[in-house]
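A further point concerns the way the authors explain their paired sequence and structure data. For illustration, here is how one protein appears when written out as sequence plus structure tokens:
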Amino acid sequence: MTHCKFRVLSSCPLLALVIALMSGTLWASDESDGPLDLGPEDVAPGLIAVYRSVDGNGPALHRVDAKPAFALSHSSPHPRIPDGPFEVEWDGVLLVNDTGPITFHAFLGGELEMVVDGVSVLRGIGHSDTNVLESVEPLSKPPGRYRVWIRYRSLKATPARLQIHWEGPTFAPEPLPAWRLSHLVERITPELTRDQKAMAGREAIGRFGCARCHQGALPGVDDPPPGPSLADAGRRLDRDWLMHWLDDPARTRAGARMPALFAEDRTGEVERWILADLLGRRDVDRADNDSSVGDHRAGRRAFLSIGCVACHLVPDQDQSEQPNRDRFGFEGLADRMSEDDLVSFLGNPHARYPDGRMPRLPVSPTESKDITAYLLMWSPSLKRERGIETPTPEEIRAVARRLGVRGGGAEVATALMTERGCMSCHPGLGLGSPRDIPFSGKVTHGCLERIGDDGPRYTLDDPTHDAITAYLAVASMEIHPSPFDTRQRHLSRVGCVRCHQRDTDRPPPIEEVSRTLGGAYLQVVPYQRTPRLTDPHEKLTPAYLAGAVREGVSGLRSEAYTFRMPAFGPDA
């Protein structure tokens, strides 16, 4: 029975309910035709999605998707959804700006039904991931916002794929744009609010490295170590700075991922001194090997023009006057990195951050020196704590006895690093692997405790604290392998959308920030645009895209274009 016939019969409530249950489109049974009268406050971007296993195994997943599109092959869409056939329903609003008739088609591997304002525009089954599903009925509606409902179900032996296209008399065939899709705020359910908060907690847990110590309690978290490599710490780190950092990383630098590990008493002070004495370099080690100095003026031009502002604040401008967009500052940079260290880091960031958070930009040695000179000139030194009294031999022996260690300061420091789990989060200290410290049963205990505790102490705002708590309540359910979800997290971690627009009509941070820049030799920076990554499969071959991500891009733009594409190497 078609939806139009159903609307004729809907005057009988009981009959309407029966038919709706049989057709699987219950929500459409009580929706009136015509465009919706909505204000900006009534809608939010994306469609409300509910994922569940077809077999009924495991819990449902509620989230907001930018658009109904994926190419999963045989991967589960999320660690909470078991392997095997799954289904997802999307509910929301479609913005139509063109007069009809508008037809839809889809690349489909699976089973699909799409209903717009009661009109079934797509319905059918695709038994391969190259199958094309044609429109059942065109959509002939005046411009406006209309309710849309989509249901997809994967098939056991078919690679799961869905990409919806549309076309009309005034526009050519194109993928259904994400910015045409939204959802009604009034239809946000408690389950969606709960799962959205848990997703934010999952992101925070990966950022802070919680699974490096609580692997068993967080089976679905496999993020790389969040700490920088300390293989060369003895050459580049200053002991006094380390003492200040280890006292409370979050107080030293906003947004620090590392917790405070030591008590705020004399014993904690002695333990910090033992570690800093082992890892920190001495004054005699600070001489630079290369006497040449970069040009800070040229460094400023390079920093602003090649795209560093996508992730970093401009150090010589007032931070309160800059668009934030979750960008990072350079407070205390000169305290922890010398000129030689920073030049080497810009040449190979992955040596310091193996998780890939800092990409390798194609900068020459001269440009690295110039950028280094600029950053160090405008990197404010942090206020150091008062000088502490050097620990006595007896105080060091007391720490050694507590740890059950015999030997000098190096042995005690190594035992301290093992006890505090430093090797789990920092490569370069020796063999380290995630630990499996069980939770106490109270999610507010230990790392999440707001006041006094002997363990790690994170400085968390209330939303982050609540989000982590929400994820811990569902973490045990996320046990199913999902290569698709892993790849999505990798894309988020390396920050592609900081430079490229994807599934939105808002400019990426690099463009938004660059519009506020300018000056000598920077005339073109405010007007530059980056390639869009919405539906890249429509315009780029897989081989070209992989090569561009692996090796960077050159030769496509004029010499006046200054933004540079990082090279991601084997991660491509």
